[in-house]
Amino acid sequence: MKKIAVLNNKGGVGKSTVSVQLAHGLAKLDFKVLLIDLDGQNDSSLFLGKNENDYKKTFYDLIDRRNPAKIEDCIINAREGLDLLPNKHIEEINAEFHREARIDLYLSEKLKGLENLKYDYILIDCGPQRTKINDAVLCYVDHIVMPVQVEAASVRAIGNIYEYLSDLRLSPDMIALVIPNMFDQRTRDSKENLDFLKEFFSDRDIVTDPIHRRVKITEAGKLGKTVFEYDEEAASQFFKVLERLVKVIA
Ligand SMILES: Nc1ncnc2c1ncn2[C@@H]1O[C@H](COP(=O)(O)OP(=O)(O)OP(=O)(O)O)[C@@H](O)[C@H]1O
Ligand SMILES: [Mg+2]
């Protein structure tokens, strides 16, 4: 069971989009995948076309102190080979995490039931801020996939992740892939920022080919479809990233 966080402390860079496409792509490659949505806006659930009418129990019920739900009861199927663990009340979840003394062990404990469910990959879509939830996620996972928007402010902020990992006494080697997102091949600015990104990580070969900015990617999300169901061009870009991912953390 490979555990991956999709994380970047910057908002709106494509974490939920990347989580959903990688999760569905891995399922299409015949892996058994669970996507855990820990983004407060439920974006990855919505991008998969799932909303509150589709689930009763969520991650919130799983961590209920008095009457914790069974993990099987909080998971729903989203696509063939792809399950989803949605969330509700993210602020309360974060407050609950604050009460925990051993945040580093907390998720392993709460998600213990996953061992029996035989997933090949667990992907966790994280919210942008530094939160107790994200602290716990980083202590739980083995790898980080980091989408970075190819624009100046995002590219300049990439060092933050190193600081974050260092504060948690975790290794930067956890960063398995950096995915340049929303690349616009028509602008020089985009090319310069992509070059900067490659240069920044030049000592480790972890930057993938870029995912281009495409209206169809935004549309797919709004329609609750993945790129594999909506946009061949974006699908082939994500497949390239997937091949890298599978190799890197084999
Ligand atoms: N390559 C792309 N081309 C076009 N639109 C994109 C692309 N990647 C993401 N988007 C769109 O950009 C918006 C932000 O993406 P997304 O929600 O995945 O970011 P996020 O990092 O998860 O944001 P948050 O920090 O709020 O959780 C969404 O509307 C999404 O559809
Ligand atoms: Mg998100």
Q: How does the SSE layout of this entry go?
A:
Blueprint: E1 2-6, H1 15-28, E2 33-38, H2 43-47, H3 59-62, H4 71-74, E3 76-79, E4 82-85, H5 90-98, H6 103-110, E5 121-126, H7 132-140, E6 143-149, H8 152-156, H9 160-167, E7 175-181, H10 188-200, H11 215-223, H12 232-248
Parallel strand pairs: 1-5, 1-6, 2-4, 2-5, 6-7
Antiparallel strand pairs: 3-4
Helix pairs in contact: 1-12, 6-7
| CATH architectural type | 3-Layer(aba) Sandwich
CATH C-level class is Alpha Beta
Span between N and C termini?
11 Å
Strand content: 15-25%
Helix content: 40-55%
- As for the number of domains, it is 1
Largest sheet: 7 strands, mixed
Q: Structural class given helices, strands, pairing? A: alpha/beta
One letter per element, helices H and strands E, the order comes to EHEHHHEEHHEHEHHEHHH
Question: What's the tally of helices?
Answer: 12
Report the CATH superfamily. P-loop containing nucleotide triphosphate hydrolases
Ligand kinds: adenosine-5'-triphosphate, magnesium ion
Q: What is the name of the CATH topology?
A: Rossmann fold
Main-sheet strand order equals 3-4-2-5-1-6-7
Secondary structure: number of strands: 7
